Design the sequence.
């Protein structure tokens, strides 16, 4: 994972997955009758609450980038750190993690092929005292997170001294397998025995552990080093006889690894996904008419990675190009590459996931665009133009946690307000519909239990007691409240009469028909809606009144220009007792409205501000968080005009619910 390179002049998932995005939405066909299915196709969906979307972050182990934070930690300390990373993923409404388990020809499990990783204990071959991969899979699945095991295929060491390798290291015992280049050691991709060995080492983890995916990053042949040539001329002479030039031979060596690994993974475990995260540029259009309108490093030529062919041949289930550049970047614009990659995957059955440069947002020394808290969020807005894009993965976990300039918070508030199911893979039959056995009011919520045969379950909640399940209830994630591998769930955000539905999902995420609805009354005792037209709303004369949008709440809504002064519109409410309250906001959305409208919540510990992108996600309740509120009647939620972004700020309605 090239986390520190711009990669302009500097070098910086099978055939079984044949389900295009249309099939992802079509997965709902199995939920309803043919008539209802046609109705579902006509449902108005909110692009801000997609039903299916891969949301993941890379957890890097090489050089202790993310985890473990340093070598030599005790087993319990390592485990506590990893649980915290998973909890962060859950808090950000992610549904997968991509964890580096073979960073430098070593292992984060007791491999019969390679030594224990030095990044665990500080000593290559040192036993950490537990099985990290088994632990990681168990903990991820307990949170209903997919775990994709990330392998670096060729890198042996970040130094070029083989005597520093543990004496039993295969690269030390087989010196003909390796070469030194650019101060590092690599396995020689051109040797068939080496290719078989690398696959065997990876397949050991696939066969022995309940992982959900195999993930390769962008390191194939080494990134070019000025003044050095890859020392594989003798290997080419021995094995490259059918190739007229060494470049085509090198690309074929990588292609063979990809194709053969794809076949072996799916022969062993068809449900395991295979994905690669290549460098973001295949070739530039100036070199190849099939390339992108870019002018950066070409991975096809520089590192012999023919990523376009992997997609066209169906050798991967998903492709996750590292599009680590900002919108409008002249050399390699984000929007240019998302359009190009979308065109590449179209009609192939290969899913497109975007690698996002969380490490750049707000970081010192990055371009001005990366100092804008909206840059990453705007990437996901651009993604909506391309139905081929089914998710995003962020490099890396520590940068998601750092949340510099609030860029991750901004993204989550704008795009991850609801959970999401993972995109379906393959064509397996959906499970049978589960059955809700109880929906019981308990202190602080509603406790649900059900029976079913799914690997995991999705829980939907609809206000009131509808006479039948409308297919539109399930068309996007607006009514989705959780996913879980358990057969019970306590809804702590319930208020008033609610109807619950549960669906079952199999290992590749095909979804069953919904259960029969189960009505539960009660839940939290207090919930209040304050509309801008009500007595609890106050605003200065600077706030206009409009009925322009059909997405309004009530009879009208208020709007104002942004200024460098707060001048908030306030929603007053009578809070019955001190405690935790969920705050939701309603506003009409419009592309001309503000992308960073500040909502102020008068929390017990002081005002807290949450920004909301009012260009999308309108006409529905959108949660902005749970806050500790004091008892009393006071201005609880305000909409401020103080924002540096353009477009009207909107104040329409808020809902406050005790949890």
Sequence:
């Amino acid at each position: 994972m090239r986390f520190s390179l711009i990669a302009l002049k500097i070098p910086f998932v099978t055939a079984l997955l044949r389900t295009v995005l249309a099939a992802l939405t079509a997965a709902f066909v199995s939920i309803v009758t043919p008539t209802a299915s046609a109705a579902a196709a006509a449902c108005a969906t909110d692009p801000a609450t997609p039903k299916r979307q891969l949301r993941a972050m890379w957890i890097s182990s090489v050089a202790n980038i993310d985890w473990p934070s340093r070598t030599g930690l005790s087993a319990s300390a390592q485990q506590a750190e990893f649980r915290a990373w998973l909890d962060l993923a859950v808090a950000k409404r992610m549904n997968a993690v991509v964890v580096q388990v073979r960073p430098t020809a070593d292992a984060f499990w007791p491999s019969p092929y390679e030594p224990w990783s030095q990044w665990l204990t500080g000593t290559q071959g040192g036993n950490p005292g537990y099985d990290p991969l088994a632990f990681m899979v168990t903990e991820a699945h307990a949170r209903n997170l997919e775990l994709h095991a990330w392998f670096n295929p060729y890198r042996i060491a970040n130094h070029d001294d083989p005597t520093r390798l543990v004496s039993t290291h295969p690269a030390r015992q087989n010196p003909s397998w390796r070469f030194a280049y650019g101060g590092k050691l690599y396995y020689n991709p051109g040797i068939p025995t080496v290719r078989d060995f690398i696959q065997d080492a990876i397949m050991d983890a696939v066969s022995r552990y309940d992982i959900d995916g195999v993930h390769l990053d962008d390191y194939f042949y080494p990134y070019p080093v000025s003044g050095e040539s890859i020392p594989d001329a003798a290997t080419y002479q021995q094995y490259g006889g059918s190739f007229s030039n060494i470049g085509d031979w090198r690309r074929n060596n990588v292609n063979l690894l990809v194709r053969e690994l794809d076949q072996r993974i799916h022969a062993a475990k068809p449900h395991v996904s295979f994905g690669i995260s290549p460098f973001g540029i295949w070739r530039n259009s100036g070199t190849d008419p099939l390339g992108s309108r870019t002018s950066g490093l070409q991975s096809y030529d520089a590192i012999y990675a023919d990523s376009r062919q992997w997609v066209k041949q169906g050798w991967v289930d998903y492709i996750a190009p590292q599009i680590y550049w900002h919108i409008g970047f002249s050399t390699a614009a984000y929007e240019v590459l998302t359009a190009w990659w979308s065109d590449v995957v179209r009609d192939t059955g290969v899913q497109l996931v975007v690698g996002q440069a969380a490490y750049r947002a707000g970081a010192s020394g990055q371009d001005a665009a990366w100092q804008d808290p909206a840059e990453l969020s705007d990437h996901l807005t651009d993604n909506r133009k391309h139905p081929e894009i089914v998710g995003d993965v962020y490099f890396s976990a520590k940068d998601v946690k750092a949340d510099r300039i609030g860029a991750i918070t901004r993204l989550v508030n704008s795009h991850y307000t609801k959970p999401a199911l993972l995109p379906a893979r393959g064509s397996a039959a959906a499970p049978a519909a589960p059955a809700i056995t109880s929906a019981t009011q308990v202190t602080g919520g509603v406790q649900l239990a059900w029976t079913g045969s799914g690997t995991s379950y999705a829980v939907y909640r609809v206000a009131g007691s509808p006479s039948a399940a409308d297919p539109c209830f399930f068309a996007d994630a607006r009514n989705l409240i959780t996913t879980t591998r358990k057969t019970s769930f306590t809804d702590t955000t319930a208020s008033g009469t609610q109807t619950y539905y549960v669906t079952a999902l199999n290992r590749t995420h095909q979804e069953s028909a919904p259960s029969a609805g189960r009505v539960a009354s009660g839940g939290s005792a207090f919930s209040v809606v304050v509309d801008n037209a009500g007595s609890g709303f106050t605003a200065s004369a600077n706030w206009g009144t409009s009925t322009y949008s059909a997405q309004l709440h009530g009879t009208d809504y208020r709007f104002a220009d942004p200024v460098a002064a707060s001048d908030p519109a306030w929603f007053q409410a009578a809070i019955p007792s001190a405690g935790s309250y969920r705050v939701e906001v309603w506003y009409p959305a419009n592309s001309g409205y503000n992308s960073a409208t500040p909502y102020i919540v008068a929390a017990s510990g002081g005002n807290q501000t949450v920004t909301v992108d009012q260009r999308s996600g309108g006409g529905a309740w959108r949660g902005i968080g749970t806050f500790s509120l004091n008892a009393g009647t006071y201005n609880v939620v305000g909409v401020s005009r103080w924002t540096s972004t353009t477009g009207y700020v909107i104040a329409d309605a808020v809902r406050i619910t005790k949890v």
Remarks:
- The chain has three domains: 54-416, 435-522, 527-658.
- The mean pLDDT is 92.
- The domain at 527-658 is CATH 2.60.120.260 (Jelly Rolls).
